[in-house]
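Hi all, long-time lurker, first post. I run a small reading group and we've been trying to get comfortable going from sequence to structure in the token notation. Rather than ask abstract questions, I figured I'd post a concrete chain and ask someone more experienced to write out its structure so we can walk through it together at our next meeting. Sequence below, copied exactly:
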Amino acid sequence: MCLLGFVTIIIPSSDFQHRRHQRHRHQRHSSLDAGSSLRRRNKGADSSSSSSSSFFEDDETTTIFHREPYFSIEDSVTINSNTNQRSFQFVAVTDLDKLSIVHNSNVDNDGRVTEEETVYQSYLLPGSITYDSTNNQYTMGMAETNTNTTTATPQLRRITTKYNEGGRGGEFSEVVLYQNHLLTFDDRTGGIFEILNKKDGTESYVVPRHTITEGGSGSVSNAGSGINNDHDNDDDDETAKGMKWEWATTKDNLLYMGSMGKEYITSSSSSSSSSTSDTSTTSAMSIDIDTNKLWIIVMDLQGRYRRIDWSTQYNFVRAALNVPKKAGYVTHEAINWSSYLQKWVFLPRRISMLPYDKIQDEHRGSNKLVLVDEDFTTSQVVEIQIPPKTITTSADTIDIATNTNDPGSLHGFSSFAFVPGTNDRHAIAVRSVEENCYGGAKIAISTETVAAADAAANIEDEDDVCQQRSYIMVFDVLTGKALMEETKIEHNMKFEGIEFVNIHTKPKSKLTIPLSSSLSSSSPEKLVSSFS
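-- Answer (accepted) --
Happy to help. Here is the structure in token form:
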């Protein structure tokens, strides 16, 4: 299977990897949007100021979306005529990691399994926040299921796909409105999916629109000390691995998408023995640096895209946070461009002043925000004011020191969106937790699932379970003041994307539309601001 632009073409699975590789090479070296000379020209430079008409060489007049868009920011806002209070509907999306895999069996009349089908699942969570201008605070509400139980739980919408890479898929790490099309991003396959609704607006489903693989800066291999990754690469840096999407935002009618902004560094040693009787052994250390996740993708409505090396931009943010270049690290899952503030807004997932440790990494959540001007020349660090709280974990009770970047913090930002009508001053954010997930026996999304899995595996220690959960908060972007404290989502799942949208919107009829009719018919600028 191969995705060309936003048109799906089915190819026999045996040819998939080869043709995917060939397509990727063609896209990189086409005169339209890639090639090694383009990468050298953009290396370490921000081309974000380009408009959509000048960013690509030609200007198409039609869009590749086959359906008129029907989601909009305006439809997410409700004003109470009696109280004048404003409510904002949002939707959050899960990344369930391995829990996304579902095996469905078809059984005949005799009870025999005739066919087994594997699908990959994710969940959409609708909700809303309401602003109280008298105290400058927000409260949150969730759509509830109609159940016979005394306690209703927030309603979830299940979405599935068969698209996968190596038996993994449907792990959606972000959701964003792009020209009124609601998009979500699979961090395993590199797929970009459009979320659509069925007739009555009560069910949603996803359709693949594009697939992009990693590649750009590739890997650097060096023996010994002296490592230099400031280089131009040739075709050896191509990969068949899908982009590991972590964030997406819109700017100048273009879609910006990126990964965690951190290098992957691996090391290995080789030994050689001398032929003398007194055998001695020497070791040489080989260090491999994978910088693919420092590159971003910029795409237009036609599905044309360019790769840009953002290592300079990521390093600028790292320096603003005073993170040692060779010792510490910063990982990103929440980045947005603010058209009102004319700044990039970074909410790092994790910040560490120490080298990467796969176990301790879970405890390096961040509460910092970094405002950066368009040219990446000035920055301002804002501390999000999250009161320290004591929570009970599977192991014991610990203090989550979120007001400092203490290694004890499990909570980290995984997505955020600007509240409409606030001139990008207010933002809603998801803070997610992955606890005991490295090397854990299993992943669980509910206590019932944990109990059942423990019984089946004869595991008594709850510490062996990878526990995931997420929280939602609202804050002031410029001051860091909490406008709604962290509120736990009822479902113990990892949510990694959030966007303001009325997910109950009923779809419009299928048709092919001109590009001009889909451009920014609803943008935050059109909303009347009532916030100071």
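A couple of things your group might point at:
The CA atoms of residues 21 and 240 lie 6 Å apart.
The domain at 2-225+238-267+283-523 is CATH 2.120.10.100 (Neuraminidase).
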